[in-house]
Queue: 3 jobs
Job 1
Amino acid sequence: MTHKEKWLLFAPTGLLTIGVGASMVHWAGSLKDRRLPASQWVAAGTAALVVLNAGVSLFGRGVVEKVLYEVREKGSAAA
């Protein structure tokens, strides 16, 4: 898989996952507002933060692949 293909896979997937994680954080907050037991909203909040951080990680990997793609393209264009 090329750096461009990885970039085109990781960046949008990361953005989508960040959105899902942010929505889950809101959902976990609403569980707390409805005064559900702490074990429920803490578990939901923890899962939400895991998903959100996974999205940030995936997006970051996409940025890395984009930089590597550009470095390789400029390197081959200069040669």
Job 2
Amino acid sequence: MNLDSPKVTVNKPAQYIFDALSDVQNFEKLMPDNIAKFEVTGPEAFIFALKGMPEIKLKIKDRQAPNKLVLGAASDKLPFTLTGDINALSDDSTEVQLHFEGEFNAMMAMMIKGPITKFIETLVGNMHKL
């Protein structure tokens, strides 16, 4: 299952956005209002839970400064990645898009597609808070 967020423009340099996303603590600022838990578990990992959903642990899997940051599930039970594509439009304007990629059975994919789509749209929509 592949899902893409809309592209958003943030009035910050690409390196600034990359550095902010590389600090996992900043993901708390991007989370939706219905967050039930957010806990940094290490320099490159955090756990979060939305109300009514199970906890998910994410960790940084790859960095390609200043254009790409890949987060992945820390558990192999639900393998997925969340990739942030960061493209400089000018010295102080950056386009950001999130890509979710995971392998789920058809039933699971049907259940989570809506919530995941809304989640990544919220994350990218809150990029201006960084």
Job 3
Amino acid sequence: MRILITNDDGISAPGLVVAEEIAREIAGPDGEVWVVAPAFEQSGVGHCVSYIRPMRIEPLGERRFAVEGSPADCVLAAVCDILAETPPDLVLSGVNRGHNVAEDTLYSGTIGGAMEGALHGFRSIALSQYFGAPRPDMDLFGAAREHGAKVIRRLVDGAGWSKAGYHVFYNVNFPAVPPGEVLGVRATVQGSRPGPTFGTQPQTSPNGRRYLWLKHGHGNAGAAPGSDARECYEGYVTVTPLSADLTVRDQIAPLAEALG
């Protein structure tokens, strides 16, 4: 199996090391693991692409490249150039430092990388590790490291992978508990948390200029049971099927009637 890895935390991120460990276990001794990741952190860029500027590609070693661009750019660079003649069997995006659940999925570069893979018809999975309030002696990526390969194998071997229209891809989130305390794996819907996702925190710099920092809104405990936000918060690995299709289908008929 040939596996392509990207992320949004950058080529030097510790979660990328975990993703490589997972990918090597899945690919096996005869497989290939390729890393094409952003040269710098790209958190929060969503499915952004560098449409109005070129992106530099820097080879860093065998099957390892840094791209001055977004995670979606990295997937494009991989499947259209680096691996154009030998396309991947699987695209992994992550492991992200922090969860990508509920409204986070709309902002996440990790999700954007997996979405781009799905748009090209490749089986694609986003991987994120929830941190919560970690214990001092806890391996922050322990749950992902221990359970990642098993979950991915289940998806590759048994999950649905649509072949028409917008292809499905999967969003996997690992809970903020040690590996042995993970409660299980659950299929979930994309959640919705009460209140706004982000707010702003103003700050004045030493030279008197005013800046705004973004800060997260409410936590995951208020999300509905069965959602990715709530179940990951409770200690489960969550798996949510997603696609790039944003159509609200049950509103088509009412809309047509309203439009006459």
